[in-house]
């Protein structure tokens, strides 16, 4: 099927092959046998198997332990009219897909969510209205046969059997069309189709959620500028590496007239991550306050109408030829499913890495930084980091598993305390907010949902400085320490980590003393180190101008020194001063302002590559390129980048926060306590990159305060 016309038309090819049987699934094709016995092969790139349900291994194991003459179904466990497993003497009930409610497939209820929901409601009412109890069989040997036939958990004779009431069936068919099969006998009311069917489906799927709002799917993005071809060749190609704060700030503040279809630039963004992550709220995602999906925005949505996006990783940069080498790994999801079988999952993906090259006129390097371990042994093996979405998801799942493990009945008190010992290394904003979110999690949700283990939870924060939030105002440093001590968070300040082992952190105090801190979970939030791509680029630039060990030294216009004006750098990868004392801190606020500056610079100035003179010409390359040998010269009147500090925020737990404001008046310089927490929450919501994420984050604050945090491991 084809929709639209011309070069920008959208093509959708689909086919339906009915009345056929799949005989084999190969690496890239499916073998089919049609109704007339003819065979056909159907090629695919992605195959989704949704052919039905099979018996769960646990159900199969239980079925083998029950009388074979009673359990004759091959789909699940046969149950009686009260959903009791036949042959279990009334001690086992079964519901959902594992239960078979009829003796034959024709009389059995279908394995649907609607059936399972009504079965759950029935059993809830049955157990609520009747006081069911175990009746031990008689010890008299003469009554053994009678005891074997009797129910160990008898039901009252008045107990009503389960009755299923079909409420209808729904299906979404795409293109804003749907169908609904209603339980009415009147012909014109029996079905609902088309647009009304789709809207009914959407309404009911939202209404049937449990305390969850379902968003409408976004409209597909409009076509973007071509990355190749005659149109691109006439423009200055600007390639952006990364999808973090600096890159997204640059994209959002571009002038559409300069980067649109009729502009002088062609924009290409390359990043292995196809979303922008709001990193300041990662601790809140770990604590289950905000959903991970609420703090991400699609890069393709942000790039809409401005340029082209490639999901790939830049593995090499040649600054002389101005060429990037990019790599795209095979689908990580398929690779991760190797243990689940299937031809795609078992395929060797090592040869599936796709490599391509991309030339640029101007390169914006915004790849960020990586976690710094300072060469301390055991950090990579035993600690959790918090720099990516995957880090937050992994840590949140681990915390959920630790809580559930500690709540098991046979766990000893000593092991329980160790499981629930949380150690955070790092007293900066990330480490402080992780500890604060853990405290709130324990106080507000663990105490209510895990009352038997809440008292065993311990939180310890380790930092080499003498105070928390060392870059903040001294009043905030003192207030943060007082708040943590009041909340029972154990502070180990002025303490250096020397090694991390399984279950313990080895530390050294300022006085030379050494000891260890036991943990069940250790979060490492101590700082950042140079990104491997930045280190590679740094080696290819003049060593006498690239002297920083933290990142790439840039000039006052954020141009990388020694790159002849073709490479700009922003965010954590950029070092803006000649010494650590004058360099700007690697924060989201700095990266955001750098992105805004470069967006204004390129939008206002028509920058273009000036090729060096040919070998046969008298002029030297430096003369042809412009003053200072720049291949992309800047006008002399170009203003340098100037950073304006707008303040610092931190959440301290227990509805308390702190805000360091750039105001000279003493009583207005800091904001603490409840007002500080509300200011932090408000600003973290307003600073989201899109209206969609602002709405979702605001919704999450309300949801968490009303219904509590998400303690599940998904």
UniProtKB/TrEMBL annotation:
It comes from Chlorella sorokiniana. Residues 21-120, 237-595 form the FAD/NAD(P)-binding domain. It comes from the Eukaryota. Its main location: mitochondrion. Belongs to the NADH dehydrogenase family. It is a peripheral membrane protein. GO terms for cellular component: mitochondrial inner membrane. This is NADH:ubiquinone reductase (non-electrogenic). Keywords: FAD, Flavoprotein, Membrane, Mitochondrion, Mitochondrion inner membrane, NAD, Oxidoreductase, Transit peptide. Its EC number is 1.6.5.9. Residues 645-710 form the External alternative NADH-ubiquinone oxidoreductase-like C-terminal domain. One of its GO terms (molecular function) is NADH dehydrogenase (quinone) (non-electrogenic) activity. It holds the Pfam family NDH2_C. It is found in: Mitochondrion inner membrane. It catalyses: a quinone + NADH + H(+) = a quinol + NAD(+); a ubiquinone + NADH + H(+) = a ubiquinol + NAD(+).
